[in-house]
Amino acid sequence: MKPVYVAVTLSALALNGCAPPRHTVEPYRSDTQSAAQLQRSAEQVCRQSGNVEPPATPFITDGCSLWPDGQWVECCVAHDIPYWCGGSAQQRRDADRQLRACVANRSAAWIGTLMYLGTRIGGHHIVPFHWRWGFGRSYPAGYDN
Question: I need a labelling partner for 15 at 20 to 30 A (CA). Which of 54, 65, 121, 132 fits?
Fold first, then answer.
């Protein structure tokens, strides 16, 4: 096996092992009532999106995965919810576009665009990371049609 493939595989395994076991964003990390309300909201988003039942695993957010949690962290938390639910490729595009617009509104358009591109590339359902599309479901969740 070529060294580059070994390095990529080891990096992927290391990053996948970094899945947060609990919320890493305040107030959800330390306030159980806020965390419970967020869970209920996430479940409601899943149901409204056409997913009959939310994933069996609890909703956990790490804020802006691999990106600084700036003034846009609420945008990232809101974006994590449909990513947890999963669904169609169109629903993923819509979630990523909403993230871009939210971040651009809170900071600058170029930051929103960078985050959008990052989610389009790194959030595909096939990547085995905790931030992938459908991360609340068994891997690989795939897209709903």
Answer: 54
